[in-house]
Design goal:
The complex is a heterodimer of chains A (274) and B (412). In chain A, 73% of the residues lie in helices and 0% in strands. With 274 residues, chain A is mostly helical. Chain A has one domain. In chain B, strands 12, 14, 15, 16, 18, 19 and 20 form a seven-stranded mixed sheet that branches. A six-stranded mixed sheet of chain B has the order 5-6-7-3-8-9, with helices on both faces. A four-stranded antiparallel sheet of chain B has the order 11-10-13-17, with no helix packed on it. About 1% of the residues of chain B have low confidence. Chain B has two domains: 242 residues, P-loop containing nucleotide triphosphate hydrolases (Rossmann fold, 3-Layer(aba) Sandwich), CATH 3.40.50.300; 116 residues, Coagulation Factor XIII, Chain A, domain 1 (Distorted Sandwich), CATH 2.70.50.60. In chain B, a hairpin with a 2-residue loop joins strand 8 and strand 9. The chains are: A mainly alpha (274), B alpha+beta (412). Chains A and B meet through helix 2, helix 5 and helix 12 of A and helix 1, helix 2, strand 4 and helix 3 of B.
Chain lengths: 274, 412
């Protein structure tokens, strides 16, 4: 196999796709084995956060005038928390993916990209499972609330948004995994940054981008147009055709290319430096 | 080059002593330091070469042993061949699927069952699911843990885990198989089974690279052995002389640690052939002399010299004590040499370890004891069987001979 190591990294990754599949399956099995709720935890995490924020923003504090929502807050929050949980838990898995699998990295040859990607893969499965709750919530508020769900063809665009988000996660994940291998500080920094990042994104409240320096910060945050895009396709029947989503897409592709190139170039050092 | 061939050409691998920059703070301070013109503290003096200009080749169906003292660079070489690390110099060419049994069961997870881990491990080693499905029964049978196959691996004993790991790897159908020190686990029967499986693979045209400290196993298995010492190839050829070179390398290492403040010290041991040549191997029927160099700081009037010989595995085999033969030496302070000659050493092929004891017969105490640190190899053309090698002859009996023995009753 090392003789073939000069192949293009994407070709090599394709040859090892079954390793990616079985490592993803392993991640999931390990996570849910010996736990009472099992895969139910995939639902519990975004749902409990949704409940907490619903309490905060409907009982404890009121949203500012002009930021009022034209839909139930719980639904708004869950539609943001669902992709955000995928984003945050996927990247969190990536940060540790190389270090946690030290025995594989130092003992067996396979493209190391497989490790962060399998972390994203297992989070993706959780994401799909947790989507069921979104369907239930939509149904609930449509039938019992004073809000009506207006499905449109824009829903068909959702997989593209998931794709853009996954591409961005792939690039960031490889950079994080590699960074944490060389400098263990990365994990600590990441856990702080991801918290702040969530509140700089329109996950649990709407954000205005025309609001001074905060607005500018929010507008260069590539996750904002992605979360926006989910909501507009799902609830407003509107395709995310504006420049923010285009910016997010370009950003995602650039991050993947840069991340993967760095990761691949440094790959031969992993076994020595881990 | 065909499938299952391997070529190392001038391969070197450098490691940095110390840690490099392990935290961002160190990286930052080094970066700032460089910015202000301070030179970096890491220089090339800090590097050490784990491998230096290593070249050897192997082709399909060969079983090559790789031996050397600890730290000789064996594991580094294997990791380079497996593609886990990249050499700093030279070229490695390999053709076909390389499977490394560097640590069996890499990727085993305690929470998964044996069966789940088989699938997991097999896919990491390059097997597809249908292939595993087909071989699953064979793998489970081979491991001998079939009754626990649906139990999480964390409840397995370490031997069971290792057996399962080896079973998976042994069924991967590699073109090049790298086995590193893994057969030390498992019981004797399982070890035998592993050896049989490895031989099967070699017969099928697999190139096997075998690292072990178990020299008898290596001798019975590998026709060719590469000896590494200090990152360099010091020998590449037949296994018996390779083992001798390896032992010489070990001995060289040990010589450095000798106790100075003793009354008596064994300066060294030397084996001499019939023609007084210094040797490290001999054949069982050949005459052999042993010379021991003795340093004394005080004169001893009745010094007795004693040799103990032990086989690599197994018990104490022989003992020669000069005092029992009625010989003691009256030696002055300084160096002396004592020689013992043997007409032959009728023992089977293998490694033997010699211990030298110097006793002061007057004081009734041992003044020097080297422990079993001197190794000597008895060569044997065939495989070593048994412990002894006694002169014998074979004859086909003709009619006449049978007639004269007609009264003899053959035991059936």
């Amino acid at each position: 196999m090392p003789a073939l190591a000069n192949q293009h990294p994407a070709v090599e990754l394709w040859r090892f796709r079954h390793v990616l599949a079985s490592l993803t399956a392993r991640e999931l099995r390990i996570r849910y084995k010996q736990s009472f709720l099992g895969v139910g935890w995939a639902i519990c995490v975004p749902m409990s956060m949704m409940l907490v924020f619903t309490f905060v923003f409907t009982r404890a504090v009121k949203l500012e005038q002009g930021m009022q929502l034209d839909m139930p807050y719980a639904l708004f929050a869950y539609a943001g928390l669902l992709p955000w949980t995928f984003f945050a838990s996927g990247l969190n898995g990536c940060v540790n993916s190389l270090v946690a699998n030290r025995n594989l990295v130092t003992k067996v040859y396979f493209p190391r990209e497989v490790l962060p990607l399998s972390a994203i893969g297992s989070s993706f499965v959780d994401f799909c499972v947790a989507t069921s709750v979104l369907v239930v919530l939509i149904f609930y508020f449509h039938v019992f609330g004073d809000w009506t769900f207006k499905p449109s063809a824009a829903i068909l665009f959702l997989p593209v948004i998931v794709g853009v988000q996954t591409i961005m996660m792939g690039g960031l994940g490889m950079l994080l995994a590699m960074g944490n291998l060389f400098y263990r500080d990365v994990r600590q920094i990441f856990s702080v940054v991801i918290q702040l990042w969530m509140f700089a994104t329109n996950v649990v409240y709407p954000l205005r981008t025309d609001d001074g320096w905060v607005g500018r910060l929010v507008s260069i945050n590539p996750m904002t147009p992605i979360i926006d895009a989910y909501r507009s396709c799902l609830f407003d029947g509107r395709l995310p055709v504006g420049s923010p989503f285009l910016f997010a897409t370009v950003f995602a592709v650039v991050v993947l290319v840069v991340g993967w190139t760095c990761f691949h170039r440094a790959g031969f050092l992993f076994a020595e430096r881990i | 080059m065909g499938k299952g061939s391997l070529k190392l050409d001038g391969v070197s691998k450098r490691f940095r002593r110390g840690t490099g920059h392990d935290s961002l703070a160190e990286l930052l301070s080094a970066g700032v330091g460089r910015l202000f013109g301070r030179s970096r503290r890491t220089s090339h003096d800090d590097d050490f070469w784990a491998l230096h200009d290593v070249s050897f080749e192997g082709c399909a169906g060969e079983a090559i042993g790789l031996i050397g003292p600890n730290g000789a660079g064996k594991s580094t070489a294997l990791k380079l061949i497996a593609g886990i690390m990249r050499p700093d110099g030279g070229m490695i060419e390999s053709v076909g699927r390389v499977t490394a049994l560097i640590e069996i069961g890499a990727g085993f997870h305690g929470d998964l069952t044996g069966r789940e881990n088989i699938y997991m491990n097999a896919s990491i080693l390059g097997m597809r699911k249908p292939e595993v499905d087909r071989k699953l029964d064979a793998i489970i049978d081979f491991s001998g843990v079939s009754s626990f196959i649906d139990t999480p691996v964390k409840r397995y004993s370490s031997g069971m885990q290792a057996r399962l790991g080896f079973s998976v790897a042994a069924h991967v159908e590699p073109d090049i198989l790298i086995v590193d020190e893994v057969l030390s686990v498992g019981d004797v029967l399982f070890r035998e089974r592993c050896i049989r499986r490895m031989r099967e693979l070699v017969d099928q045209g697999v190139l096997l690279l075998f690292v072990t400290h178990h020299l008898e196993q290596m001798q019975s298995f590998c026709s060719r052995t590469v000896v590494l010492d200090g990152g360099r190839v010091i020998f590449d050829g037949n296994t018996a002389p390779a083992v001798a070179r390896y032992i010489a390398a070990l001995k060289h290492q040990e010589d450095d640690v000798d106790n100075e403040d003793r009354i008596a010290r064994v300066g060294g041991l030397r084996f001499l052939s019939d023609s007084d040549e210094s040797v490290l191997t001999a054949r069982p029927e050949e005459p052999l002399s042993v010379e021991v160099l003795i340093h004394l700081t005080k004169p001893i009037r009745r010094l007795s010299v004693e040799f103990d010989i032990r086989r690599e595995i197994g018990a104490h085999l022989l003992n020669f004590a000069s005092v029992r033969d009625g010989v003691t030496y009256d030696l002055a302070a300084g160096e002396s040499m004592v020689r013992m000659t043997l007409p032959a050493l009728p023992i089977a092929g293998g490694q033997y370890f010699w211990r030298v004891l110097l006793r002061d017969d007057e004081e009734q105490k041992t003044v020097a004891d080297t422990d079993y640190r001197f190794a000597f190899v008895i060569e044997d053309a065939g495989r070593p069987t048994g412990m002894m090698c006694i002169p014998h002859a074979w004859v086909l009996c003709d009619e006449k001979a049978r007639d004269t023995n007609s009264t003899l009753c053959l035991v059936r």
